[in-house]
Specification:
The protein is of the alpha/beta class. The chain folds into three domains: 46 residues, no CATH class; 48 residues, no CATH class; 136 residues, FAD/NAD(P)-binding domain, CATH 3.50.50. Helix content is 18%, strand content 24%. A five-stranded parallel beta sheet has the order 5-12-6-7-8, covered by helices on one side. A three-stranded antiparallel beta sheet has the order 1-2-3, with no helix packed on it. The two termini are 24 Å apart. The mean pLDDT is 95.
Length: 238
């Protein structure tokens, strides 16, 4: 268990980046680092590398991929979400190399390698939410030439008023980040090695890119509980 916000912030810093065990859970909030030993000391069985493939809420039973059975009295569902990929919608060229999503530490490791390999290159960020804003900033810190594209009239529309968004957009523009609003990525062109080279936008513009990071949202992971719980708006109703 690790502090996930670090993956879009300090994990990608060029100087003294965050690495495990430095960002185990709770370290970010100034609490104790919850290393594996912490769980053992508190009498908590921390079972890693184990995927639950079936949940039977009626019989209060979970079954792992290897057939192990876990019984429970109380179940906390904290399965989070899975990242929405452009390949899900059949976007042309979305499977090119150096198109990244940021969900877990493995994704961040791949992105770190790409940043090192494409020094002083061009980065295109697709999406204007948390991931879009944070990755645009971190790419700029790594001396890449950054463009950020999103369809909404301003960044973080679920959270920001037009005025707050205008402040951040101005701040980013002053740092040299190009912001392109009101359009979406509809395709990608790759070179002979299959590495992304261009992002094609719906408004006809084409952006050069050595690295693309896509942050267009997530979907709740509810498949284990289908038909056993009440759902609403794609998630479990609580």
């Amino acid at each position: 268990p690790y502090e996930r916000p670090a993956l879009s912030k300090a994990y990608l810093f060029p100087e003294s980046p965050a690495r495990l065990p430095g960002f185990h859970t709770c370290v970010g909030s100034g609490g104790e680092r919850l290393l594996p030993e912490w769980y053992a000391e508190k009498g908590i069985a921390l079972i890693l590398g184990t995927e639950i493939v079936k949940a039977d809420l009626a019989s209060k039973t979970l079954i792992s991929a290897t057939g192990e059975i876990f019984k429970f009295h109380i179940l906390v569902i904290a399965t989070g979400s899975t990242v929405i990929r452009l390949t899900d919608f059949g976007v042309q060229g979305a499977d090119s190399k150096n198109i990244f999503y940021l969900r877990e530490v493995g994704d961040a490791d791949k992105l770190v390698e790409a940043i090192k390999a494409k020094k002083n290159g061009k980065a295109a960020i697709v999406g204007g939410g948390y991931i879009g804003l944070e990755l645009s900033a971190v790419m700029k810190i790594n001396n890449l030439d950054v463009s950020m594209v999103y369809p909404e009239p301003w960044c973080m529309p679920r959270l920001f008023t037009a005025g707050i968004a205008a402040f951040y957009e101005g701040y980013y523009a002053n740092k040299g980040i190009q912001i392109i609003k009101g359009t979406v990525a509809v395709g990608f062109n790759a070179d002979a090695d299959g590495e992304v080279k261009e992002v094609k936008l719906k408004d006809g513009r084409v952006l050069e890119a050595d690295i693309v990071v896509v942050g267009v949202g997530g979907r709740p992971l509810t498949v284990l509980f289908k038909g056993q719980v009440e759902e609403e708006k794609g998630g479990i109703k609580t």
